[in-house]
Amino acid sequence: MKRYVHVYISGIVQGVGFRYFAYKWAKRLGISGYVKNLRDGRVEVEAEGEEDLLVEFIKKLEEGPLGAVVEKVDVTWGESDNRFWDFEIR
Asked: What is the CATH code of the structural domain delimited by 2-89?
């Protein structure tokens, strides 16, 4: 079943290739949405995809790329409304 997630990732997650890492995994898993840096140092992800693939994607976000230190991942689940066609870095 297709679902939606809104994710905030905290820690050392900017300047370490986190957005490209998220983009690469989203594309690999067939997930649509976006990733962007926030002014407060967090990374934000909004994504839609099959629930099992989103769970796998969130696990990857919890790991992060080499050089990242992920301290906290806040995930809010919701119903997909097909608002995204592709995955992009913003």
From this structure: 3.30.70.100
